[in-house]
């Protein structure tokens, strides 16, 4: 597979390595982006690329709760200008409240929900799209329920660019919100290291065993070093093992225990994560429009 300049740029954006290093890795990986990232990591040249870093689409996330139910959604638009206007924000709240009340199974079912005057949620979204002149889409959502002796932790950052929804046993709403803020800021992937899938651990071990700085070391030393790196890797992606964002002297596990809580589950949305954004040159676009 031919390696293009666009592929090299994408790999550089994800790993911050030099152009030639990115190109060599892509050639060696025969154009496979994920394999190229792993090769660069094996050489100690790039950190783990997070899928969440590929933020592209505009829009907002939103969290709402009522009683023992809560919902988190992501609504996308083409520009952040539209995402900030009243029509979009009113739609955002309506979509979230409608989903919270009905708890649909998926996006397709959510779009078919009745809203008012015989219209569906999809009709409402289309109407706002026509008003704003931009395509607006409901990308994803999740609902959560809790018992009376549990509490939600809800937090939105930067006007909805990132939102987190977590469920805790316990009743300290302020502490729950603090942990939700930590989730939004630090982006853990799992509640604890016990929740990390075996295949994720196996892949990380494979990458670490191939690290160039381990070449020539005895197998027992190599295994011990990799074991330490795996432990660090798990701590970085597991919520309970992370240093608490509001007090780095304690872990999240220690914070929730001190507040008589346990973390049951969490969801974190960041606007546009995983969506590739089309790069445009404003000057070129203007020139095209005026016929130059």
From TrEMBL:
UniProt region (Involved in Mg(2+) ion dislocation from EF-Tu), positions on chain: 79-82
Broad class of where this protein is predominantly found: cytoplasm
InterPro entries tied to this protein: EF-Ts_dimer_sf, Transl_elong_EFTs/EF1B, Transl_elong_EFTs/EF1B_dimer, Transl_elong_Ts_CS, UBA-like_sf
Annotated Gene3D superfamilies: 1.10.286.20, DNA helicase RuvA subunit, C-terminal domain (1.10.8.10), Elongation factor Ts, dimerisation domain (3.30.479.20)
Locations listed in the record: Cytoplasm
Keywords: Cytoplasm, Elongation factor, Protein biosynthesis
PROSITE patterns documented for this protein: EF_TS_1 (PS01126)
Presence of keyword Transferase: no
GO molecular function, one term: translation elongation factor activity
Highest rank taxon of the organism: Bacteria
Alphabetized Pfam families for the sequence: EF_TS
Domain Translation elongation factor EFTs/EF1B dimerisation: 70-273
Keyword Protein biosynthesis: yes
Function statement: Associates with the EF-Tu.GDP complex and induces the exchange of GDP to GTP. It remains bound to the aminoacyl-tRNA.EF-Tu.GTP complex up to the GTP hydrolysis stage on the ribosome.
Family from the record: Belongs to the EF-Ts family.
Protein name: Elongation factor Ts
Gene: tsf
């Amino acid at each position: 597979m031919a390696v293009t300049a666009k592929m090299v740029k994408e790999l550089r954006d994800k790993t911050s390595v030099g152009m030639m290093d990115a190109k060599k890795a892509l050639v060696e990986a025969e154009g496979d982006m994920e394999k190229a990232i792993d090769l660069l990591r094996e050489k100690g040249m790039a950190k783990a690329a997070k899928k969440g870093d590929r933020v592209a689409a505009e829009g907002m996330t939103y969290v709402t709760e009522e009683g023992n139910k809560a919902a988190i959604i992501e609504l996308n638009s083409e520009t952040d200008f539209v995402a900030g206007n009243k029509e979009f924000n009113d739609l955002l709240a309506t979509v979230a409240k409608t989903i919270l009340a009905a708890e649909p199974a998926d996006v397709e079912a959510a779009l078919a929900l009745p809203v008012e005057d015989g219209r569906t949620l999809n009709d409402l979204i289309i109407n706002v799209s026509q008003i704003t002149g931009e395509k607006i889409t409901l990308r994803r959502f999740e609902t959560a329920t809790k018992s009376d002796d549990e509490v939600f932790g809800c937090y939105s950052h930067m006007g909805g660019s990132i939102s987190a929804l977590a469920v805790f046993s316990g009743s300290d709403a302020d502490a729950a919100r603090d942990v939700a803020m930590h989730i939004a800021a630090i982006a853990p992937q799992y509640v604890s290291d016990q929740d990390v899938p075996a295949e994720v651990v196996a892949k990380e071990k494979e990458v670490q065993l191939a690290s160039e700085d381990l070449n020539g070391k005895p197998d027992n030393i190599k295994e011990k070093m990799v074991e330490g790196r795996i432990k660090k890797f798990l701590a970085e992606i597991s919520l309970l093992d992370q240093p608490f964002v509001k007090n780095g002297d304690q872990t999240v596990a220690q914070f929730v225990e001190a507040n008589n809580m346990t973390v049951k589950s969490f969801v974190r949305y960041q606007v546009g994560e995983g969506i590739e954004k089309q790069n445009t040159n404003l000057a070129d676009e203007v020139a095209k429009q005026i016929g130059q």
